[in-house]
Amino acid sequence: MKRIIMMSFFGLMLYACNNGQTDKSTDDANKIDMNDRGNEKIPTPGGDPAEYDPNRGAGKFTHVDIGNKLDVAMAAGGEKIYGVKCSGCHKVTDEKLVGPGWLGVTTRYKPEWIMNFITNTNEMLDKDPKAQAQLQICLVRMPNQSLADNDARQLLEFMRKNDGVK
After folding, report:
1. How far is it, in rounded angstroms, from Cα 160 to Cα 155?
2. I need a labelling partner for 86 at 20 to 30 A (CA). Which of 47, 97, 103, 156 fits?
């Protein structure tokens, strides 16, 4: 009986985390043609190279101006979002919980990559080698949290604060 209950619980958890949906919200107007920028096309698994840049990942964010100073108000908003949407799976240390710890994330990845991963999770996990490597370590696919662009920007600022940006 215990075994049936546990199997049902894990099945429900898997269903709740992704419930079979995929994110198809990429706006065609925000796609980049790498030939227009004069960059060499980079072959990527499962996608058109014109849509993919390994430094920014897959998504609409091509440049995020973060400045040198921390935006304290945005970081506070990001901390609230983290508490509601992210803290169940991520720690602000380097310790893995369900997903990887966030300590040092802004030194390892560009702001565009982080924001594209937050807002375009499914496509990033399908196309980006760095996201796929994290998936191999964590073994749990991050569910799309349906966060707005401003929410993602606030989370980025909270991550920068966590990494010591003043």
Report:
1. 9
2. 47
**What angle, 0 to 180 degrees and rounded to 10, lies between the N-to-C axes of helices 72-81 and 149-162?**
100
Tracing tokens 């075994």 back to the chain, one arrives at 3
DSSP 80-121: HHIIIIITTTB-SSS-BSSS---TTHHHHS-HHHHHHHHHSH
CATH topology of domain 48-166: Cytochrome Bc1 Complex; Chain D, domain 2 (1.10.760)
pLDDT tens figures, 15-53: 555 444 444 444 443 433 333 333 333 343 444 445 678
pTM for this prediction: 0.69
**Domain parsing of the chain, residue ranges:** 48-166
Nearest alpha-carbon partner for 117 in 99, 96, 95, 137:
99
